[in-house]
Amino acid sequence: MSSFLNGASPRQQMEESDIEAGPSTRRSADLDDGDFSDPFDIARTKNASIERLRRWRQAALVLNASRRFRYTLDLKKEEEKKQILRKIRAHAQAIRAAYLFKAAGGGPGSEPIKPPPPPSAGEFPIGQDQLASISREHDTAALQQNGGVVGLSNLLKTNLEKGIHGDDVDLLMRRNIFGSNDYPRKKGRSFLMFMWDACKDLTLVILMVAAAASLALGIKSEGIKQGWYDGGSIAFAVILVIVVTAISDYKQSLQFRELNEEKRNIHLEFLFEFVHEKVIRGGRRVEISIYDIVVGDVIPLNIGNQVPADGILITGHSLAIDESSMTGESKIVHKDSKDPFLMSGCKVADGSGTMLVTGVGINTEWGLLMASIAEDTGEETPLQVRLNGVATFIGIVGLAVAVVVLLVLLIRYFTGHTENPQGEAQFKAGTTKVGDAIDGAIKIVTVAVTIVVVAVPEGLPLAVTLTLAYSMRKMMEDKALVRRLSACETMGSATTICSDKTGTLTMNLMTVVEAYAGGKKIDPPHKLENTMLRSLLIEAVAQNTNGSVYAPEGVNDVEVSGSPTEKAILQWGIQLGMDFTAARSKSSIIHVFPFNSEKKRGGVALQMADSNIHVHWKGAAEIVLACCTGYIDGNDQLVGMDEEKMAFFKKAIEDMAADSLRCVAIAYRPYEKEKVPTNEELLAHWSLPEDDLILLAIVGLKDPCRPGVKDAVLLCQKAGVKVKMVTGDNVKTAKAIAVECGILGSYADATEPNIIEGKTFRGLSDAQRDEIADRISVMGRSSPNDKLLLVQSLRRKGHVVAVTGDGTNDAPALHEADIGLAMGIQGTEVAKESSDIIILDDNFASVVKVVRWGRSVYANIQKFIQFQLTVNVAALVINVVAAVSSGDVPLNAVQLLWVNLIMDTLGALALATEPPTDHLMDRSPVGRRSEILFFMILIGIDKLFACFFREPLITNIMWRNLLIQAMYQVSVLLVLNFRGRSILGLSRDNNQHAIKVKNTLIFNAFVLCQIFNEFNARKPDEYNIFKGVTRNYLFMGIIGLTVVLQIVIIEFLGKFTKTVRLNWKQWLICVIIGLISWPLAVIGKLIPVPTTPINNVFSKCGPSRKREPEESQ
């Protein structure tokens, strides 16, 4: 894992250097820009500029900015992080410049010799300050004074080959003296801070002021015993809203804090049986948490690794480090004995080596940077941005309605048309007291402001946060670590998954099951009698590897570590009779060419005890075989490679590939010692000879398909998601695995362009690639650049693409894809840093679970939108019609605040945490280009408020459901409002009491309608709305709590809410009114809806919208 998961990601540098552009002139980034004229249409926040993100914030109608934007990117803090990063980079650049200046001046010898530093008084002869001075300042002179890396290792009591002892006492002592590989994190916000944020809501502030004024006037006119109820009830309701909101937000904050801790502490060794090479302790390579690294550790470095701490290079082979994360420059720096300093946080771009740790945690530049910017600045997702657009529109409509209600009520009140329960005008010019007039006006303002509170759905964008936090936690249980929030929702829209083969579709547990050596097939594969051939093979297997074999003393079993391919070949070597340590001691490594995914092979040059030079190569069988001009036969004789023998080996490779085996060839050649560069710098850039090779062996490695992968692929296909295999393996191997996994239906489907070779696809033009991209199911012998070209073509065709990757060179494709999925076990640090989600078990079935959760996120938000819009429409229409017609509103301020709690906070909690169902995988993916125009088109203000959505956020089914429910609620409650007294048999009752009973029943029926409608919202397109409801304890708990609180409000808090107690018949009427929404929902679902999105119907009537040039990313 990355040493600091929450740090400044190399992904940012990748964005700045535009590495994903590739050779294509037609980039797919233009698909992400959306409609530039609409600030809320940002398809991918992944690449959006700060200016673009600032535009939608400025366009949003917000009552409480601190709450609304809490879980979005904090632009101010982001800028502060960049400033800190610039300062630290400047320091790193200054150190680098000083080092180069010294080197140009003749090196350490040109400087006066400094006296050695005083010895430390602790357990070690050297102290932390001295180490920090050497490593952070790149002080070559001080390093030499301490005896170089060998002398430094002695001072740190470290063996450069075996590492530290690593027992608990040793580790504790090193942490106490030199610190731990960690950095302090800022404390989370307290509950009181969330309370304060909730108090900043403009409407709640206005209501508190109104409550205070009403309280003062009431006490003055009616006395303290009776006069405090009006103002006190509003104040109490506002305080309740603030407290419940703060509790909800605080819990969300705790959830995210826990998720960040889980992400930070995630440790693959404890979760899975696979072991990674990380640290050498006691002579063995062990996997430890990045945070357990201590000063003195010896760490192997390979391509794609992140340097986990500051250190000094011990040995290196073509080691190249990308220091852009620290210096800001994309230049690759080659490390050798002249420049041995390694900085924490940098990436291994090429080569391999080992390092001695000299600084950890806060004692490194990277640690200082992480401590400065450790606070999470947040991140917004496209859905959050769009929902802010929805909330803005609804808020504008609600504000307009509130203004209309305010004007109508004020005009009616001051013109004497508003009557009290006795039928008398409430305001009489020249007669009514000033205090009474002000009190009446305050009540009207309070109702209008409360309508705004209900109408502006502050909780709508926050519902995304709730469901994302819930989904992220559950996805962790399903072996998926989410690095970017937006990936959760985007995954639900995926139309194509480009998957690796090895380790994702297969188990990545390789064994050598076939071998060809001595010019023939050997069976069993380790039964080799040729003495010289066996000796050369053991030499090749032991030296041309980045794996290792550890043999504990007194134990027969050995521990083999490395990649699955390396482990399989090392195990085969052991079966041949290899003693790993002895074999490596017989020769010394001169130069290494690390395995390269472009060349598909890796090599090593060795100097033997007799000073002869052997060059060994290992890699893709057909590629290495093509470089061979001879082979060693069964009599240990060198024989020239004729056409017949070449055809024999090619046929062997094809047969093994057809059996879904990975084919690896091992070859070597002797080389003239005189041609080997002696200069260290020339040697570092020496290209190993790869012609005239002598074939030693071809082995076939079996990697079985994962159990259940075929079912997972079929589930994807059923869900409308196309699975494509992109692998570096032989095309025939890929074809066999694809048929076995169900990606190809049969071998008859294995024709171009269904199955294609990487170089063929690479050679096509952009237009030709776009034409066949949809039809490709398997790409074999592909390079990482081929994967990038395929992703770009698919995105240009309108697909939402998810890509799996594990190698360093996969980073551009992972970054370019809509969702980058890195492998947690085999993935390099560079791949993980470039990804959106890390699949912890490398299993394709886990990728399918991520798709399921992604669809669940989208579905849950749609459920909440349907529920909330129903409440919005009903509440607004009821109050507007009542206000205009009678000058009074049936739902007062306190009641509306309670409805707001049900609708916003409690509704979001209930509906945003629904677990995914199998039904979600029966739908087609949403995709990229489906757009729906929000309902503001219906009222003819397209250009002003139109909000295009690439995905159908509000589907035709949702429109049908919410309109049916809203019309039913409005109709029934308005009938009760105007004819309630006669219908309820209250004509003979006291006028004032009758009005209170009627309004109480309307309020109670309205709340119960929402409670019953919450069940309907759970299943917008299914008849059985109760399926799985008993397993959702949070939903049932919230429903139960709402019912209990509603009973308490009606029966016991009448003075506060202006309600009266209802008898059992009236309660039964309310329940029946709410209950009817269930059969009504079933009847509504029988009504067919058009498949054409509603925007296609109305957009023809509106003006055309031109896309403006895309924003520079």
From TrEMBL:
Alphabetized GO MF terms: ATP binding; ATP hydrolysis activity; calmodulin binding; metal ion binding; P-type calcium transporter activity
Residue ranges of the TM segments: 202-219, 231-250, 390-414, 444-470, 1033-1054, 1066-1087
Matches recorded under CDD domains: P-type_ATPase_Ca_PMCA-like
Gene3D superfamilies given in the database record: 1.20.5.170, Calcium-transporting ATPase, cytoplasmic domain N (3.40.1110.10), Calcium-transporting ATPase, cytoplasmic transduction domain A (2.70.150.10), Calcium-transporting ATPase, transmembrane domain (1.20.1110.10), HAD superfamily/HAD-like (3.40.50.1000)
The enzyme's E.C. designation: 7.2.2.10
Keywords carried by this UniProt record: ATP-binding, Calcium, Calcium transport, Calmodulin-binding, Ion transport, Magnesium, Membrane, Metal-binding, Nucleotide-binding, Translocase, Transmembrane, Transmembrane helix, Transport
Membrane topology: Multi-pass membrane protein
Domain Cation-transporting P-type ATPase N-terminal: residue ranges: 148-219
Organism for this UniProt entry: Sphenostylis stenocarpa
Localisation: Endomembrane system; Membrane
Reported function: Catalyzes the hydrolysis of ATP coupled with the transport of calcium.
Renumbered residue ranges of the record's region Disordered: 1-40
Biased composition range(s): Polar residues: 1-12
Family: Belongs to the cation transport ATPase (P-type) (TC 3.A.3) family. Type IIB subfamily.
One GO location term (cellular component): plasma membrane
Broad class of where this protein is predominantly found: membrane
Protein name: Calcium-transporting ATPase
InterPro entries: ATPase_P-typ_cation-transptr_C, ATPase_P-typ_cation-transptr_N, ATPase_P-typ_cyto_dom_N, ATPase_P-typ_P_site, ATPase_P-typ_TM_dom_sf, ATPase_P-typ_transduc_dom_A_sf, ATPase_P-type_domA, Ca_ATPase_N_dom
Coiled-coil residue spans: none
Reactions this protein catalyses: Ca(2+)(in) + ATP + H2O = Ca(2+)(out) + ADP + phosphate + H(+)
Enzyme class: translocase
